[in-house]
Fold this protein.
Amino acid sequence: MRWPTDRDREFTEFVRARRAALVRVAALLASGDMARAEDVVQTALTRLYLAWPRVRPDTMDAYARRCVVNAATDERRSPFRRREQVRAQLPDRAAVEARYDDKTTIMALLSTLPAGMRAAVVLRYVEELSVAETADAMGCSEGNVRSQSARGLERLRAVFPEHTRNAG
């Protein structure tokens, strides 16, 4: 068993090394809402810290990704999330009118997908995880990952055919 000080040191090192990548995944899952992404990662890291003594060193990255996916899914189900979202400024234009060569566009494209499809597409094609790794992160079968990925790409191609020619 690891001592508490070793546990804290190991966890801190892990967070310093991997937090940026976890925030990137969360931002994609949260359709670019960085504040929400930060909240999702904070929730995921809290859950990871509580489970840290039981997490095997060779599965830490996969476990952390799964925590992020689960926290993003849980956050979307929250009653608080369903309330009106207050913004300091109104957007200049609709997200689909955004330029199709920047990060905003990727977020707009991904936001058209349901959460499960978005998670499958992000983990498979943005994070470049294998089907098995994606299934593990999503807590579902490999067949579900294949199905959700294919449907997600199909939906993106249908809505934005001129902007998805390189996907898949």
In short: The CA atoms of residues 44 and 67 lie 5 Å apart. The longest helix spans residues 4-29. The chain is about 65% helix and 0% strand.
